[in-house]
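During the reporting period the student researcher (J.K.) took over the structure-prediction task from the postdoctoral fellow and processed the backlog of single-chain submissions. One of the processed entries is reproduced below for the supervisory committee.
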Amino acid sequence: MEQELLREAVTALQVIAAGSATTWTDPPVLVALLVGLLQCALIAWGIREMGKSNDNRTKLHEETMRKMDTQHEENMTALKTLIERTAPR
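J.K. obtained the following structure tokens:
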């Protein structure tokens, strides 16, 4: 019984070894290749989107800083005028 089981196991291993030569044209390999390429494309798209988002944030920050500078200048002008009006003579 054990000899027969061992012979069947050896035969099964030989069959597996003989049929395990895969090429890139086999369907599972093609599927894995397509999935890998899709993953790379999604990662590249995500990185590009993050770069665009960063550019938008930079532009928004620059615009906000310009507005704050303008507001600061207006406040300083108003403060100078107030000081001039209320200064003792």
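The committee noted the following: The CA atoms of residues 55 and 61 lie 10 Å apart.
J.K. will present the remaining backlog at the next meeting.
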